[in-house]
Structure formats: structure tokens, C-alpha cells
Amino acid sequence: MNPLISSADSSPAAHGIERRTFLATLLALSVGQAAATAAPSFFDRGAAPEFSGIDQWLNSQPLTMAGLRGKVVLIDFWTYACINCLRTLPHINRWAATYRDQGLVVGVHTPEFPFERSTSNVQTAMQRCGVKHPVAQDNSYRTWKAYNNKYWPATYLVDANGRIQYQHFGEGQYAQTEAAIRAIRALLATAAKPGPRS
């Protein structure tokens, strides 16, 4: 947890400056680690919470984590006025297009500022940024809070059993995140293959 954010007020909008300071530090650290491109660190972080309090689903009918069982799901918390999110979106869009056969990218748009609550504003930003994957409009922060999320952007990778196996906050580590997607998809493909006939 970011020590700059007090537990008394976890409202994302209340901590824009702290979030940006955190992300700038995180970006500097991730750039230093980029050359190493270490293997992703997997461990079970618990069941992925259900989408809750969603105002509107864009590019999709309403989705549920229960309905996504058997798929690898990447949850991307973002908001369109966040420059860090805008720099991450091309990678998210590419993963959505590349890995949609066995998985699905779901964006959760949680606004930082009041004008970001407008569905038409979000739709315009999605069109401008080429976002074609499902996006849940989380104006009430209920899904954000269910994940105990604190940052934009934030990525959570959920395995076929609905368990969070990997997470990353901020920009960077794109190769590591993609390696995590591939590793979980490889496990899913192996599990789906029929066993040898006797």
C-alpha cells in the first residue's frame, strides 16, 4: 500500500498527486528492471471479485467473473484522463486482439474526475484510443474497492479457475505481463488437451 495514501480516505480522486508521485517512482524502478525482463512472479492472491456496481457495459453485454470461468482474464483498471493509462492502452489493446481466443481483456473504467463519469465521454475516449474490448463503467468505485485497488493503471491477471495470479501497477513491465498471460494460457491449453487413449 502506498504510504502516502491514508486508510481513512481511499477515494481515488482524493489522491491524484500521491498517485502520480507513486507512478513516477514505479516507472523509474520498472525502467531499471526492464533489461532484466525477469520471469513473472505467480502466486495465488485469492478469488477475483465479481464486477459490482457497474453503471454501464461498453462494447459488451454485462459480464460476470463466474461466467468467465475457463478463460484467462486480464482486468485493466483505467481512466481516460490519466496519461499513464493512455500510454498503457496500446499494450492492453494488442493483448485483447492477440489473446482473445482463450482469454478476454476487461477494462474497468473508474473515474478520477467528475467529467470522466459521462458515458459519452468514455465512449469518445475509447473510440479515439482504439479500445474494442469490453469496458465496465465503475462510477461508484464498487469494483475498484472490491479489488482493494489504489492505482491507475492497474492490471490483474485471473486464471481459468477465477483466481488472481499476477498483478502490476503503473506503466512498464509489458514483456513480463505478456509472459504471464502466455504462461497462464499455456497451462489452460495443456489442461484442455484430452489425455492419451488407453
Write the layout of secondary structure elements.
Elements: H1 16-34, E1 56-58, E2 72-78, H2 83-98, E3 103-109, H3 119-129, E4 135-137, H4 142-146, E5 154-158, E6 164-169, H5 174-192
Parallel strand pairs: 2-3, 3-4
Antiparallel strand pairs: 1-4, 2-5, 5-6
In short:
This protein is an alpha/beta fold and 198 residues long.
- Radius of gyration in whole Å, from Cα? 17 Å
Q: Helix count, per DSSP?
A: 5
Cα(first) to Cα(last) distance is 52 Å
Q: What sort of overall outline do the alpha carbons produce when their principal axes are compared?
A: globular
Specify the helix fraction band: 25-40%
> How many β strands by DSSP?
6
- What letter string, H or E per element, gives the SSE order? HEEHEHEHEEH
Multimeric status of the protein = single chain
Specify the structural class.
alpha/beta
Give the amount of beta strand, in percent: 15-25%
Poorly predicted spans: 1-11, 20-37, 194-198
The strands making up the biggest β-sheet line up spatially as 1-4-3-2-5-6
Main sheet overview: 6 strands, mixed
